[in-house]
């Protein structure tokens, strides 16, 4: 609204120009304590706070490079002329502006910045004072990201905001991103939030974190409904850094270099223990089997005196690097004249992997120009882009990890002649750097042009057009390797592939804003139009056989007769009309209404349009006269708010662009004795398909105390998804696959709680603490008869069942182990071949037998019910220390394969297998150990582990070179820092990273990594 326009611009300008920390502008002009004398060219002054003089405060003539810093006694001398505006700022205090009217000296009292009541946050198509929000909105500032060595914004969000769950499942170069879910999963089909970057759809994983000014998450429908059909899973708004009008050119550099190691690895046993357990498993499979290892063999494996005949190979040490180097650099310049501002930045990220062939390099660039052309017209241009290249071996780091897990410690890498040994399975060291390559190149160019017309003092019109082009180029070549003592091992035929994918977005927006203030009334109106056209195209080709190991860059060297090709493309369009009305009376009664009308080309014309309204209200109780007169000076702010709204969700896969259009396919059919080519309808067109609708209701209370030094925000909500798009079963006579239909319901119920505290103990020491916790109960309440296995590769153990969460594990319930033949005889058993030491399952229906149809149940879930974060920042003189803990609770991981089973896939044994069942060890944590007999590998609760954890996500120690020293060499800021990511984890899991385990339960993929980095920031 117009009333906050001036403080907003003032805040953005002063916070960026004259500070090195988080500072928000005051709404008031300071009144200096002055002694009036004749106009002077040299102005003397002193800057103090409640504790006394402030050393190192910035004192600058606004819009110039003329400035200084206060000395140890808070004194300064500055050359000024009458009419100059003097800006005084210091980290943790409100920036003050004083107009010089000829005073001989001034005295400035800095006030602590509580950063709460006057904070401005970005909302849909605008900004708003945080205190006047009526929806559920969380935000973080650039300072939260700037000292963390993260290449992806999504990876930095874990635990930062209540109700926003970020799960990073990999530390692989180029894949260190997080999967974001806002207040639970709304659908069995999709759950990703909409990401808006500088007003247009974008991606948070392609932005250099150093370019971000602020990030806001719209969590409820009352705040997100302005984005309509795209907002069902929440909205993330990212604002990038811009130049400031009236500011001199400012150059900033930030960089860090770090070393990464896996957070956790499977704990495999050495050769001697492997041999002992191998012999035991051999006898457990069949007591008449001959033993492979003698006692002498075992002793030789243990003492290491025969390294070629009896090796003890640590395959992780032989295959993987102990650590990998990662580095990030960012350089920016920004500034502006009276009417124009500009900014430009470049960034570079390099991440090396734990295998030499695996690395990622990314270049980012961004520039923006904004100009006030005349009194009634302004325009701006934003251009950004990136190019990232991921390199890997043909077998990829995942494949090499699996080969490493399969290679046993009694197998050597090379024989005495130096030749690689082949033991009937891939030797990962022999393949390193020789198996070929896989290369993925992603690039994006994004341009946005806008113009704004000031029609009336309170009425503006803004038009925007954005073009975004994404391109992915993938290619790979598999070499043919022959190795082994007798060259008996081969990797097979050479092969290669090339893939090209293009995505294009064209966004058009028109916004009309009207703001009016009269008396105690504030009114803000927004009307808008938006159209997004999206086009996709994909091509790929493969060849196999022939070729040469030396010519890897072209498919033309491979056998042309083996070639295949594929092509796909589609187009999708959305058109929307939306509006918002905001009203406040005396800043205590707050009302907001939003509506969006969306149309999508995915649906037939009769169901193409959907209307999504939202309403919210707030009551700032502390603004009431009876509260002001109650003598409750300790209560700074108390607000109640409530909201209701609806958002849409088309929740379809990209390739499901034409579900309302019949599709046909070629086929063959026999008529008599003749085979004819035919055409058939392959997909039924459901013309009744329409939007799924998510209805949200929320109530919240916000309070702060002691001049906003402590406070909290508590919100409870319920979200219901109706008309979910499901594949309802059809009879076989239908002749086609089941079409999508509107059916099914999902509910998410929960709460978000955030608590903050900040305080200044002295002029040298201050701190702030933030804690948040969130709970969500996710439940499939109606599936219209579609209960069963979750579709998708690797999802067969997850089921969709009414009354249970999305992502539920479904299997047998373990009931300990059989300890004797008598217990086995009494049963119940599943196969009839059980032996003492095998897993016993509960007979859920009491029929005396264990079968899949009657004795399986939901035994766990892959998504946490509870998430939490605890962060603190401490500042002492020029030193600062920050730490951040993040946790997730009530979540399970099904651990299997090489990460759980002994000798699985011909592989190793783990430390946990030492505690296996034997006739003398009934209280064991692992069943009787076997190799050929896999009776215990059924999907059951026995193999579930509690994946809850608490992790020290970040610890940073920094030192800021004193400004008094920097001013002598014309530098604004120099900071050096040491930072660590994922430093330690408290969890019940014994060998896998708990954050990635639910999606990486075999341990064959790239674990999250622990990083130690040193960094430097310089500004001038």
Form type: globular
Overall structural class, as computed from helix and strand content, comes to mainly beta
What's the number of helices? 11
Strand content: over 45%
Question: Mean of residue pLDDT?
Answer: 88
Helix content: under 10%
For the biggest sheet, the summary is: 22 strands, antiparallel, barrel
Task: Describe the protein's architecture and organization.
This protein is mainly beta and 1020 residues long. It contains 11 helices and 54 strands. The strands form 12 sheets. The protein has a 22-stranded antiparallel beta barrel. Strands 11-16-17-14-15 form a 5-stranded mixed sheet. Strands 1, 2, 5 and 8 form a 4-stranded mixed sheet that branches. A hairpin with an 8-residue loop joins strand 41 (788-789) and strand 42. The longest helix is centred in the N-terminal third of the chain and has 15 residues, at 271-285. The model is unreliable at 1-38 (pLDDT under 50).
Structural features:
1020 residues; globular; 11 helices; mainly beta
Please describe the topology of this protein.
Elements: H1 5-17, E1 42-49, E2 52-53, E3 58-61, E4 67-69, E5 75-79, E6 85-89, E7 96-99, E8 105-109, E9 120-123, E10 126-129, E11 137-141, H2 142-146, E12 164-167, E13 179-182, E14 194-197, E15 200-201, E16 212-218, H3 221-224, E17 235-240, E18 250-262, H4 271-285, H5 295-303, H6 315-319, E19 324-336, E20 340-352, E21 359-372, E22 377-392, H7 396-406, H8 428-431, E23 436-456, E24 459-478, E25 482-483, E26 489-490, E27 495-518, E28 521-544, E29 564-585, E30 589-600, E31 609-620, H9 625-628, E32 635-649, E33 663-671, E34 674-683, E35 692-705, E36 710-722, E37 725-727, E38 740-742, E39 745-760, E40 765-782, E41 788-789, E42 798-800, E43 808-812, E44 814-817, H10 821-826, E45 839-841, E46 856-861, E47 866-876, E48 879-889, E49 892-894, E50 944-946, E51 949-960, H11 963-966, E52 973-981, E53 985-987, E54 1009-1019
Parallel strand pairs: 1-8, 14-17
Antiparallel strand pairs: 1-2, 1-5, 3-4, 3-6, 6-7, 9-10, 11-16, 12-13, 14-15, 16-17, 18-19, 18-54, 19-20, 20-21, 21-22, 22-23, 23-24, 24-27, 25-26, 27-28, 28-29, 29-30, 30-31, 31-32, 32-35, 33-34, 35-36, 36-39, 37-38, 39-40, 40-47, 41-42, 42-43, 43-46, 44-45, 47-48, 48-51, 49-50, 51-52, 51-53, ...
Helix pairs in contact: 4-5
């Amino acid at each position: 609204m117009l009333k906050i326009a001036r403080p907003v611009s003032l805040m953005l300008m002063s916070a960026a120009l004259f500070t090195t920390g988080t500072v928000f502008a005051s709404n008031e002009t300071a009144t200096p304590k002055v002694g009036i004398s004749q106009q002077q060219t040299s102005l003397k002054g002193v800057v103090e706070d409640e504790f006394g003089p402030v050393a190192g405060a910035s004192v600058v003539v606004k819009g110039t490079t003329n400035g200084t810093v206060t000395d140890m006694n808070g004194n300064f001398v500055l050359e000024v002329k009458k009419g100059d505006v003097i800006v005084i700022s210091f980290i943790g205090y409100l920036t003050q502006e004083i107009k010089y009217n000829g005073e001989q000296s001034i005295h400035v009292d800095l006030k602590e910045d509580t950063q709460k009541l006057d904070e401005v946050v970005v909302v849909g198509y605008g900004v708003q004072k945080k205190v006047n929000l009526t929806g559920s909105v969380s935000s973080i500032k650039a300072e939260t990201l700037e000292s963390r060595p993260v290449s992806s914004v999504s990876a930095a969000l874990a635990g930062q905001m209540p109700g926003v769950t970020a799960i990073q499942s990999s530390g692989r170069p180029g894949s260190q991103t997080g999967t974001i879910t806002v207040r639970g999963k709304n659908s069995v089909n999709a759950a990703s939030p909409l990401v808006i970057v500088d007003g247009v759809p974008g991606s948070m994983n392609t932005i250099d974190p150093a370019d971000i000014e602020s990030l806001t998450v719209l969590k409820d429908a009352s705040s997100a409904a302005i984005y309509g059909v795209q907002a069902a899973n929440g909205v993330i708004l990212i604002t990038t850094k811009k130049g400031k009008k009236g500011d001199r050119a400012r150059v900033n550099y930030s960089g860090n270099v770090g070393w990464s190691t896996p957070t956790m690895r499977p704990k495999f046993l050495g050769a001697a223990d492997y041999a002992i357990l191998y012999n035991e498993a051999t006898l457990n499979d069949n007591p008449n089997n001959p033993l492979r290892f003698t006692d002498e063999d075992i002793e030789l494996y243990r003492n290491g005196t025969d390294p070629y005949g009896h090796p003890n190979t640590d395959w992780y040490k032989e295959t993987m690097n102990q650590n990998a180097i990662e580095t990030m650099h960012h350089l920016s310049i920004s500034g502006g004249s009276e009417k124009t501002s500009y900014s430009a930045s470049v960034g570079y990220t390099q991440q090396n992997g734990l295998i030499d062939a695996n690395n990622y390099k990314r270049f980012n660039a961004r520039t923006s120009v904004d100009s006030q052309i005349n009194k009634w017209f302004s325009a701006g241009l934003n251009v950004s882009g990136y190019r990232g290249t991921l390199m890997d071996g043909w077998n990829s780091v995942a494949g090499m990890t699996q080969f490493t897990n399969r290679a046993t410690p009694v197998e050597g890498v090379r024989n005495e002649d130096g030749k690689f040994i082949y033991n009937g399975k891939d030797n990962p060291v022999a393949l390193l750097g020789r198996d070929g390559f896989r290369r993925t190149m992603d690039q994006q160019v994004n341009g946005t042009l806008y113009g704004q017309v000031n029609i009336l003092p309170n009425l503006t019109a803004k038009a925007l057009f954005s073009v975004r082009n994404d391109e992915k180029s993938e290619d790979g070549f598999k070499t043919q390797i022959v190795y082994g003592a007798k060259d008996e091992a081969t990797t097979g035929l050479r092969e290669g592939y090339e893939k090209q994918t293009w995505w294009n977005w064209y966004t058009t927006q028109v916004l009309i804003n009207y703001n009016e203030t009269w008396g105690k009334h504030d009114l803000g109106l927004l009307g808008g139009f938006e159209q997004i056209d999206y086009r996709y195209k994909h091509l790929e080709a493969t060849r196999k056989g022939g070729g040469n190991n030396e010519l890897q860059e072209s498919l033309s060297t491979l056998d042309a007769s083996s070639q295949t090709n594929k092509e796909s493309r589609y187009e999708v369009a959305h058109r929307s009309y939306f509006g918002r009305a905001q009203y406040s009376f005396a800043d205590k009664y707050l009302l907001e209404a939003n509506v969006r009308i969306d149309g999508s080309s995915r649906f037939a014309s009769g169901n193409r349009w959907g209307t999504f309204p939202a309403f919210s209200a707030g009551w700032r109780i502390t603004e009431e006269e009876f509260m002001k007169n109650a003598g409750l000076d300790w209560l700074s702010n108390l607000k109640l708010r409530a909201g209701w709204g609806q958002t849409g969700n088309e929740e379809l896969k990209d390739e499901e662009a034409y579900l309302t259009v019949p599709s046909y396919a070629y086929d063959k059919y026999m008529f008599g004795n003749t085979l004819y080519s035919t055409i058939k309808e392959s997909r039924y067109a459901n013309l009744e398909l329409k939007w799924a609708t998510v209805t949200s209701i929320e109530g919240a209370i916000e309070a702060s105390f002691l001049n906003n030094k402590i406070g909290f925000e508590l919100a409870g909500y319920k979200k219901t998804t109706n008309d979910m798009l499901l594949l309802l079963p059809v009879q076989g006579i239908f002749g086609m696959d089941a079409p999508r239909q509107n059916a099914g319901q999902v509910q998410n119920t929960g709460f978000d709680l955030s608590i903050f505290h900040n305080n200044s103990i002295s002029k040298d020491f201050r701190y702030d603490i933030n804690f948040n916790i969130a709970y969500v109960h996710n439940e499939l309440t109606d599936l219209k008869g579609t209960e069963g296995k979750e579709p998708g590769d690797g999802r067969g153990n997850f089921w969709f069942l009414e009354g249970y969460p999305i992502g539920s594990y479904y299997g047998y319930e373990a009931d300990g182990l059989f300890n004797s033949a008598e217990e086995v005889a009494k049963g119940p058993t599943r196969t009839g071949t059980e032996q003492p030491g095998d897993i016993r399952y509960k007979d859920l229906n009491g029929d005396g037998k264990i079968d899949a149809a009657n004795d399986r149940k939901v035994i766990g879930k892959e998504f946490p019910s509870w998430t939490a974060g605890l962060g603190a920042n401490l500042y002492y003189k020029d030193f600062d220390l920050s730490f951040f803990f993040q946790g997730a609770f009530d979540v399970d991981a099904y651990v299997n394969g090489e990460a759980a089973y002994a000798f699985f896939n011909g592989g190793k044994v783990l430390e946990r297998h030492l505690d296996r069942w034997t006739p003398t060890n009934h209280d064991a944590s692992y069943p009787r150990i076997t190799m050929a007999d896999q009776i215990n590998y059924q999907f059951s609760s026995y193999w579930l582990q509690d994946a809850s954890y608490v992790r020290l996500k970040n610890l940073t120690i920094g030192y800021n070179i004193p400004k008094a020293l920097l001013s002598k060499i014309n530098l604004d800021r120099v900071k050096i820092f040491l930072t660590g990511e994922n430093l330690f984890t408290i969890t019940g899991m014994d060998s896998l990273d708990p954050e990635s385990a639910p999606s990486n339960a075999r341990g064959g993929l790239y674990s999250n990594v622990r990083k130690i980095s040193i960094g430097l920031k310089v500004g001038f």
